[in-house]
Amino acid sequence: MDDQVTLPAPRADWALFLDFDGTLVDIAAHPDAVAVSPELHELLRTLTQTLHGAVAIVSGRSLDGLDALLNGALPAMAGIHGLERRDGRGQVYRPMDRTESFAEARAALSAFVEQHPGTTLEDKGNALTLHYRGAPELAGEAEALLRTQCEALGEEFRLLRGKQVLELKPAGHHKGTVVEAFLAEAPFAGRTPVFLGDDVTDEDAFAVVNRLGGHSIRVGTDRPTAARYQLESVHAALQWLGSLSEQID
Ligand SMILES: O=P(O)(O)OC[C@H]1O[C@H](O[C@H]2O[C@H](CO)[C@@H](O)[C@H](O)[C@H]2O)[C@H](O)[C@@H](O)[C@@H]1O
């Protein structure tokens, strides 16, 4: 992994894919507590202009959750770790609604959260997310619960781990598959993919971008990664992104 000094020289033919939490905004105590500044909205608009629309957010949050935070600043976005996607023209792609499949897991997780202060359930409909940032000592118990629920759901579902968070979602889509879906169509097709992310679920996208000859950039330096470059922090990522348009013009 190279360091920040040797980040790739920005080019007008890039397709830029950006993770959200831990990449564009600092991690906060609660999902609703992240600070999204007007400057971030402006940055996303400027990058989208510079790269002729080839900018997408690729997040674990839902599309609705992202829109609420970003005021629709970007048309192209992927939510729930690649499960749902909105393309550059605003067309939304969602797989079959599995909300009902989660009924039992939803009840079990709700009961857990009620009994364990400091934990939160984020219900995304097609995925269930259990946060334990407010009670990190419950990591083991939470993991055991989610494992049991995932086994009960069967092979069509997966358990994902993130930053003090565990998530149940349908299998078959991840951040790598959704980057490939964007790259198959305008305005992303034919461009060099560049992915910025911080979390374990971003590793799927790093692997795809590396295979396609693009640039993978990890935000954070605290664990091994397949990313070829690194930026130290959200602050460093925002500074670098802020300099791209000037460097490309
Ligand atoms: O793929 P991302 O955009 O990085 O989304 C991953 C998860 O991010 C959110 O949870 C994380 O950020 C929260 C706010 O800073 C923090 O409280 C939590 O501990 C982190 O795990 C989001 O709430 C999840 O839905 C996303 O899957």
From TrEMBL:
Q: Any keyword Magnesium?
A: yes
Q: Which family does it belong to?
A: Belongs to the trehalose phosphatase family.
Q: What is its EC number?
A: 3.1.3.12
Protein name (Swiss-Prot/TrEMBL)? Trehalose 6-phosphate phosphatase
The signal peptide here is none
Pfam families assigned = Trehalose_PPase
Functional summary from the UniProt entry: Removes the phosphate from trehalose 6-phosphate to produce free trehalose.
Q: A biological process (GO) annotation for this entry?
A: trehalose biosynthetic process
Give GO MF terms, alphabetically: magnesium ion binding; trehalose-phosphatase activity
Q: Which reaction does it catalyse?
A: alpha,alpha-trehalose 6-phosphate + H2O = alpha,alpha-trehalose + phosphate
Q: Gene3D superfamilies this protein is in?
A: HAD superfamily/HAD-like, Trehalose-6-phosphate phosphatase related protein, domain 2
Q: Which InterPro entries does the record cross-reference, listed alphabetically? A: HAD-like_sf (IPR036412), HAD-SF_hydro_IIB (IPR006379), HAD_sf (IPR023214), OTSB-like (IPR044651), Trehalose_PPase (IPR003337)
Does the record bear Acyltransferase in its keywords? no
Organism of derivation: Spiribacter salinus M19-40
Which residues lie in coiled coils? none
